[in-house]
Every structure is written in structure tokens, then in C-alpha cells.
Prior knowledge:
Mean pLDDT: 83
Membrane topology: Multi-pass membrane protein
Keywords: Cell inner membrane, Cell membrane, Membrane, Transmembrane, Transmembrane helix, Transport
Order of helices and strands: HHHHHHHHHHHHH
Number of domains: 1
Transmembrane segments: 51-71, 78-99, 119-145, 152-177, 217-237, 257-277
Helix content: 55-70%
Family: Belongs to the ABC-2 integral membrane protein family.
Protein name: Transport permease protein
Distance between the termini: 41 Å
Number of helices: 13
Number of strands: 0
Structural class: mainly alpha
Largest sheet: none
Low-confidence stretches: none
Amino acid sequence: MTTVDLSDFDVPGRGRGIVDVFQWRYLLRLLIRKGTATRYRNSALGWTWSYVKPLIQFLVYWLIMGFIFGMDRGLENYPVYLFSGFIAVNFFNEAFGNATTAIVDNRALVKKIYLPRELFPIAAVWVAFVHFLPQVAILLVVCLLSGWLPSFAALGAALLGMLILGAASLGLGLFFAGLNVRFRDAQNFVEILRMLATWASPVLYTWTLVQDRLPEWFLYVYMVNPITIAVEYFHYAFWQPTVPGESFHGFPPHFEYYTGGAIVVCIAFLVAGQLVFRRFERTFAQDL
């Protein structure tokens, strides 16, 4: 009886997860290019919407929270404070939402050929980052007009905040992208989480309000939220240099430990997201 050596063949449909994405970099670039090119297809304003939409949202929040509820009282340069935190949450929400629906939105490719399915959520996060850059450009213009001067500390804080947001959105995106193929209720649950993200981080208010009005243990839980940490780094990078030293409320005590805790949470999100994604990946084609 003749035996066939199958040692050089891979089992179809199974890979090494995120690690395989590095070998498919060309396809990843194509997916990112496709995501950015088709977002405003057949739109008269095109990429202008990437500037208009966040500006309108910012103006609404500024009008309601700043003027009507008076949250700007005692907080110097509240517009920069608000917008720097606002774009951080916007980046997370778009990346998280796009990653959650990435498999369903690309069902045609998933059902026809094999490729690392993690490519789709990762590409979705990158596309969200590309759309995040125009908002950063607007913020930089406002900051420069307010007397902002770049420094290594500010740029490092902004970069760390972006990395934390990207890791958190990718980990949660992988988790819910796998669930969403089998249970479409996951997408609705994600919408609730995205709605709460703005209020669960110090975007419209300062962390000192949480410290003054809620139990001490709640502050610990609140501060290990990756979005909270990222927003505070954005405040330090963009808002703090535009206000007098005494107006900056500073970081909470032991902020470096909170940052470490948030990074651990991001790693846990990535590990759990990858495990759940690979668990449901086996039946993607059938479920779609």
C-alpha cells in the first residue's frame, strides 16, 4: 500500500491567529486601502466628512456640557480639554465597531477562500486610525492657536494613548467579531458599550469629580479602564501645555500603576479575543 507524505501540507482553515497576519502584509494593505477608498464613495464631500462630523459632534457636546450644564467652569481652555478626550473615544468607538462587524461585512471573501480571518478586524482598526488622523489635525491646529508647543513627553503620551486604544479596540473587536457571526445580538450589545464609552471616561468631566463623589474603590476600577487612561494621556499631551500650570489638575495618585493595570487589561482583551475568535472561526463559513 502506497503512503503519501503529508508533512508539507497544512490543515486548511486553521492558522496561527494574529501571528499569520505578518505573513499576509500585502493583503492587509489591500484591505486597508479598500476600507479607506470605499468609505466615502459616491460622496460629494468625500473626506471632508472626516472633518465635518467630529466637529459637529464636538460643538453639540460643547454647547450642552459647557454652556448649559456649566462643566467649563473652573476648567481652563475647556474646548481643547473636551476635544482631546472626544477624539480619543471616537477612535476607540470606530475601531471597536468596525472590528466587530468586519467578518460579516466581508462574508463574500470569508466563504470563498482561506486567509487569516484576523486580517479583517485588524484592517478595520487601521482604517479607523486613518480616519482618526484628520481629527488629530484639527486638534493640533486648535492647540497651536492656544499656545501649544510640542515636547517629547507630550508626543510620547499621545503615542501611548493611541497604542492603548488600538490594543483595547482590537482585543474587544476580535472577541465580539467572533460572537457576531453566530449571534447577531453581539452587535447590538457593542452599540451599548460604544454609547457608554464617552461617559465612562473623563471626556466631559474631570477624574476629580469621580474621586470626590464616588467611593474610593470605584476610582480604582474606573482608572484601570484603558479608555480612561488613554484619555488622560491625551489630555496631558494636548490640553495640559495650553493651560497655566496651576490649572492642570494632574494625574491621579499612583497613575503609573493604573497605567500598568490598563495595559494588563488590554493584554487580557487580546488573549481572550483571540481565543474566542478562533473558537468561532471554525464555523464562520457555515454561519455566514
